[in-house]
Write a structure and sequence with these properties.
By secondary structure, this protein is of the alpha/beta class. Helices cover 33% and strands 21% of the residues. The two termini are 37 Å apart. It binds S-adenosyl-L-homocysteine and iron/sulfur cluster.
């Protein structure tokens, strides 16, 4: 949205700091390293800012919802002209105007989100791709997992109206978009604020009926999941056979301390019902290693759950203590070296599960939506198959944005290599 507004002002994009007149950092607070990365980038801009008095630097996003990082930016990077958070993005032009008038860094961070404002999209110039788009269905989160900063930086759950979402998808489809990914912190809690428990399955069905070619969604929360979502996935060919269902840990004791509202068994029940109903669906997950107090036995339970669930891939993270969250106050006596060693063991297991699955795809034919051309080789193009697996082929860049059949020839841990088939 901000990118769109800047383009409307007539700005042109560059990735080179030294050529820019306006630099905006949009920040993520989910783990500490993202915050440190921001300070590193601001450090790089500092040198340029000293010689370029007209340079405008703004910092926004989740990290700025916290008091300490805002203080840090003001103390260490006084050349920053504007700081704002996640709750007043709608007022971006006003913020810009006020900060230009101000003599010092202009800070406007709101603790409460403003009411949802639907602005009818007039064009797609703010979107980074011409073929695939993210569509927000809900903002915020009510879950308060004890390690997570999102409920504090993004506020309570607010769902968009179904008609607005469907209209946005239709709008994108008319402009040639082939894939939408429905986004929310817990997509399957969608509509609970309207009092409708099955709203996500209904929404997914309504989006499927728009006829857009590919639909993905992320992220569902295990205890809000209901089989009606499987019914819709089974019924509509344009809902992709992929489910990303974060498990976080395989140990009931840890899940409880994380305030995740399901047990290992409940998680596995969903997996079994998925495998039975939709055997072709790819299942991926998120896992945190080294949560405060995690023992070797707890960790073994995580490994064994991965084997039982036979994940096709996973994002794995080492616990990062976020200030203000309950987990940051829990006793954590596991040495970092042990956490890293567990992380490596988990990664090895996940990699071997993904490799196994990738191998089984050799000689199959997959439909790939091509999205990128290699920087090194203009004839090497890449895209994703229906399951969300990355596929590379030798092909003409004019195929970008098209869905084509590909025969898989080779498998690697994170990608497949194939050849284009004639249609
Ligand atoms: N709402 C989604 C995920 C949002 S954040 C869900 O509940 O599943 C994406 C992932 O980041 C989480 O699934 C979790 O695995 C990881 N994560 C969040 N906070 C973290 C922290 N403090 N340390 C390490 N990983 C974290
Ligand atoms: Fe964070 Fe997801 Fe838990 Fe919400 S459900 S608190 S976003 S991990």
């Amino acid at each position: 949205m901000i990118r769109h507004r800047l383009l409307l002002l007539g700005m042109k994009e560059t990735e080179d700091f030294s050529k820019a007149d306006f630099i905006l950092f949009n920040t993520c607070a989910i783990r500490e390293n993202a915050e440190n990365h921001l300070y590193g980038e601001l450090g790089q801009v500092k040198g340029i800012a000293l010689t370029r008095k007209d340079l405008f630097v703004a910092v926004c996003g989740c990290v700025m919802q916290e008091e300490k990082p805002v203080r840090y930016v003001l103390d260490h990077f006084p050349f920053v002209s504007l700081v704002f958070g996640t709750n007043n993005i709608d007022a971006f032009y006003v913020l810009l105007e006020e900060s230009i008038k101000a003599h010092a860094t202009y800070v406007d961070v709101r603790s409460q989100p403003t009411a949802l404002v639907e602005s009818q999209e007039e064009d797609t110039s703010g979107r980074t791709s011409r073929y695939t788009a993210f569509v927000d269905i809900a903002y915020g989160c009510n879950k308060f997992c004890t390690y997570c900063i999102v409920p504090y930086t993004r506020g309570k759950e607010r769902s968009r109206r179904k008609e607005d979402i469907v209209n946005e998808v239709l709008f994108l489809k008319e402009r040639g978009y082939r894939q939408v990914t429905l986004l929310g912190q817990n997509v399957d809690s969608y509509g609970k604020d309207f009092g409708d428990k099955y709203a996500f399955a209904d929404l997914l069905e309504a989006v499927a009926q728009t006829g857009i070619e590919r639909i993905r969604f992320t992220t569902p929360y295990p205890s809000d999941f209901n089989d009606k979502v499987f019914d819709v996935m089974a019924k509509y060919d344009n809902v992709m056979p992929a489910l990303h269902l974060p498990m976080q840990s395989g140990s009931d004791a840890i899940l409880k301390r994380m305030n995740r509202r399901y047990t290992r068994k409940e998680y596995l029940d969903i997996v079994h019902s998925l495998r039975k109903r939709l055997p072709d669906v790819y299942l991926t997950t998120d896992i945190i290693v080294g949560f405060p107090g995690e023992t070797e036995e707890d960790f073994q339970e995580t490994l064994s759950l991965c084997k039982e669930a036979r994940f096709d891939g996973a994002f794995t993270f080492i616990f990062s203590s976020r200030p203000g969250t309950p987990a940051s106050r829990m006793k954590d006596d596991t040495p970092d070296s042990v956490k890293h060693e567990r992380f490596d063991r988990l990664k090895d297991l996940i990699d071997s599960l993904s490799e196994e699955k990738a191998k089984s795809m050799v000689d199959t034919v997959q439909e790939v939506l091509f999205e990128t051309v290699s920087r090194r080789d203009q004839n090497r193009i890449s895209g994703y198959d229906r399951h969300g697996k990355l596929v590379h082929v030798t092909g003409d860049p004019s195929l970008i944005g098209q869905i084509r059949k590909v025969k898989i020839l080779e498998s690697h841990t994170y990608s497949l290599v194939g050849e284009l088939l004639d249609d």
